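Exercise 7. Predict the joint structure of the components listed below.
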Amino acid sequence: MRNVELARCFRDLAAYLEMEDVPFKPRAYEKAALAIESYDRPLAEVYRDGGAKALRAIPGIGASMADKLEELIKTGKCALREQYHARMPVELATLTAIEGIGPKAVKVLYEKLAVRTVEDLEAAVRAGKVRSLPHFGERSEQKMLKALAFLRTTGGRQPLAVTLPIVEQIAAALARLPGVERVAVAGSVRRRKETIGDADLLVVARKGDAVVQAFVTLPQVERVLGQGRTKSSVKLAGGLQVDLRVVPAESFGAALCYFTGSKSHNVALRQLAIKQRLKLNEYGLFRGARRLAGRTEEEIYARLGLAYVPPELREDQGEIEAARSGALPQLIEPGALRGDLQTQTDWTDGADSMEAMAREAKRLGLEYIAITDHTQGLTMTGGSDETKLRKQMAEIDGLNARLGGIRVLRGAEVNIDKDGMLDIDDETLAALDVVGIAVHSHFDLPRAEMTRRIVRAMRNPNADILFHPTGRKIQKREAYDVDMDAIIATARETGTVLELDAYPDRLDLKDEHVRKAVQAGVPIVIDSDAHSVKHLAFPRQYGVDQARRGWATAADVLNTRPGDAFLAALKGGRQAAAGSRNRRARNRARTPRS
DNA sequence: GCCGTTTTCGGCCCGACTGTTTTCAGTCG
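Solution:
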């Protein structure tokens, strides 16, 4: 049983307990669910290796929950949940995912109208039955219909790259309003989560209601979900929910902190405040009625005895302890990137010429760029064979002779065949400056076979970088089933670099894998996977954010180094690109059979 | 049900808004 499923069971229990008005237990189960969900190892493994005792070592898991986890892992079921479910057989997860519906509402809907599923709910609403229930009315019915429609179309979340420009546009519109002193983007957008459920904006202004009024009448707004004097929620035409909060300047830092989250980071901060006999809310940090801090986030963290925690780390994943002990990493900054190691050109499926790509990379301030067109295994792109690759290398040499201020590296995105072999011979690979390897087919292999396949390819001494290591496309395609711990261990052992592909719908590695790689001392590179000149901006726009969420410093990211140092750090420690045809000679070897 | 810089009992984050309830519960962030 996977962690998400275990967490799901605990969330169900929390909801059932909430329905019965049981005090405190619901929060305990929810907290545990969050801990389980974000735990970086399958609990089934933790249990296998360390038994119930190891489970109890997880914060939020005590004796009772460890028992339930043990039961779930062993039998796939939890008697208590089954009991509740028998009494009230409702689809809790999907029903409570609907805006405005919580456990209490689920209970009433089931008891009065026998609503068990989202479909039941929709039918009941359309029949006008819901309005007759206590605490419900016609307006609640309308809200539910809208929420149901939204859930169907988007699944409730949108990729960051879709949301970010919209949010920045709205922030700019608010900043132009009279009386607005300051606007900040908060929430998961500020934390740069890869998908966004709703966006949060914070405004400093004296008169809140005027700002709120202007906000709800912005042209992008399709529907007003709520509107008060200092707080409002709207739904945009594209389906994105945006929440606005207006605060006075002396509360800006506290509100930004509160509104940035994550929720569990906030809870941890507030608990820390309580321990110091203080109170933290969105207006400030208080001792009694006296405000000790609130104007900036920095002073709040400082007053709590913490180093400033960058928004990308605020997930309650150890950052508070690190901030207390001065162990927070110095996160990589966008400007630190000096090179791009994955780009495609019109030699295969890219839109632009090698020269155009090189010139744009230079314009962006990069020092080097690898051209990595596809290889023959990817037939539909017109992928290169050895002959075409040799021809391209010669052209790149010419390009380097012609262009100044940018170094073009000879590379390829080499296909990993089903059995883990590469589709270009070793001699040709050895002549390249940068060899990226990637899976583009047979995505559905069983976990063990997929892992073996990739590990084998990584063991090729010419394979420098594993491109988009999990193959996922955000909200389009699941990652293939691969043991990332094994991939990271192999990377460490063989010196293969892992790529963080910054193409916005990939962001592959994802944050937790970046963190694991960093912890294991495995270097990463942040690449654009550009298929046109305009894609070359992706690493600094999105890739660095993702790396920061994985606690990466500039030192963890190999393409923050100058070209020569970068090449020297690749497998085999090669030197300069030009005139180095033999630089791999000593590495030339038969692809090992594994 | 969990947990401990107010420890093994007695606490548990905090506040705004909505709807329909005329005094507040539920939900959300």
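Discussion. The domain at 334-587 of chain A is CATH 3.20.20.140 (TIM Barrel).
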